[in-house]
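Exercise 7. Given the encoded structure of a 188-residue chain, write a plausible sequence.
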């Protein structure tokens, strides 16, 4: 790095032409990159640090580059201007925006185990009463908000379902959901 006793060096990105990459905006890059690496199994390729104005001397992570399930995943710090003087065309972290606008889908070896680790690390399941469900299409599924406000849908394949069985299985699952809602309502 220039200014730190090293010559200027070009950094070649790991993303190939035509390859989709995902950039998540967060308020704490170091914590988010650690979460995606340690909990979701991403491989960290590099972090960049920038001085944080007004902080004690030291370095703060400004962005991180990871790979998750073969996909480039970039984690970048929210620009405080975007948070403090928001415009609808400026991207913000879900925590600042007050909502997430999408969810990320990830197939994993064991939905139940990953959800336990994610919740222990500060995530919030979308359906606390029944956080993991078996989908009629053959996947075990859970959805959670990570500690940075991004929504993750994690799935594990539990069975292969023939397409001709899907309508019946869907109807059975929808009826089970209706029954559950009926029993969950207070009488009156």
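Solution.
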């Amino acid at each position: 790095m220039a200014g730190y006793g090293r010559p200027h060096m070009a950094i070649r990105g790991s993303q190939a032409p035509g390859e989709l990459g995902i950039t998540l905006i967060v308020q704490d890059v170091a914590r988010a990159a650690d979460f995606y690496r340690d909990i979701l199994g991403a491989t960290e390729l590099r972090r960049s640090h920038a001085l944080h104005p007004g902080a004690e001397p030291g370095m703060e992570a400004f962005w991180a580059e990871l790979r998750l399930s073969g996909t480039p995943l970039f984690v970048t710090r929210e620009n405080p201007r975007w948070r403090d003087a928001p415009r609808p065309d400026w991207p913000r972290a879900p925590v600042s925006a007050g909502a997430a606008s999408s969810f990320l889908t990830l197939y994993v070896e064991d939905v139940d185990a990953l959800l336990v680790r994610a919740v222990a690390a500060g995530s919030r399941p979308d359906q606390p009463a029944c956080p993991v469900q078996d989908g009629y299409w053959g996947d075990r599924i859970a959805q959670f908000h990570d500690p940075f406000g991004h929504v993750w849908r994690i799935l594990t394949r539990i069975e292969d379902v023939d397409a001709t069985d899907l309508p019946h299985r869907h109807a059975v699952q929808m009826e089970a959901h209706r029954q559950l809602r009926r029993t969950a309502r207070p009488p009156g």
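Remark. The first helix runs from residue 29 to 38. Students should compare their own answers with the one above.
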